[in-house]
Amino acid sequence: MLSIEWMLLYILLGLFVGFMAGLLGVGGGGILVPLLVSIFSNQGVNADNVVHLALGTTMACTIISSIASIRAHAAQGTVVWKVVYGMTPGIMVGTLLITRIAANVNSAYIAIFFALFMALVAGQMFLNWRPKASRKPAKFRGLFLAGTGIGSVSALAAVGGGFLTVTYLSYQNVEMKKAIGTSSAIGFPIAIAGTVGYMMSGWSQTVSVPYTLGFIYVPAFLIIAIASSIAAPYGVRCSHRLPETHLKKIFAVLSLVLSIKMLFSVV
């Protein structure tokens, strides 16, 4: 399953995803999940597990990228830690619960959900839609429930956490810069819970697949995580020179096309 050709492909994928994440300030899950599905399929992974393995591996890669993102936003003072602490328990519950359930769900249904969610994200990027702030910041119960919902969606769509968190916090009268910074911090517990959840739920189903820990393909995780962390700073530098609005639309189209391709390949 593992050869030098695949390792080189993982390096290129990590460099691309890391650069795009730094350039646009968005997670690379929309690109990473569909491409990993295609790569794993060509490597001979069982079709019943291929989407789960792509999601679990993407979640693991996100752990590394989210740490760098948290440090950058925390240094600028744009992380509302009270919100992070309030949402984290719900995120852990929602993510762990859904990853356990997802292990018994057909890959085709998860692919359909992923593609539909990417269509929603792409539409938001094109329209640059933001909800009108109309409520006071939620208390612990509201943050817990919001975290549970965001964690649940993120378990099935590795791009869901940032998109939903920014939207929710904007609605809760949180300033946009702080909403984005807080969202980056919330990405860490989502990634941790998603990684642990997919590792546990897939433990017995990937015993015959080499180099796996549950639904996490370790070589892809290590190579992509390292490569993306190297490329991300270069993306950040270029972000000040290139038209972000047009690039986000291109990114949205690319993510949507790849998701649809993944959908047809799985179904």
From TrEMBL:
Protein name per UniProt: Probable membrane transporter protein
Recorded family membership: Belongs to the 4-toluene sulfonate uptake permease (TSUP) (TC 2.A.102) family.
Pfam families: TauE
Cell compartments where the protein resides: Cell membrane; Membrane
Keyword Endoplasmic reticulum: no
Keywords in alphabetical order: Cell membrane, Membrane, Transmembrane, Transmembrane helix
Membrane topology per record: Multi-pass membrane protein
Alphabetical list of InterPro entries matching this protein: TM_pro_TauE-like
Positions of transmembrane segments: 7-40, 52-71, 83-103, 109-130, 142-168, 180-199, 211-234, 246-264
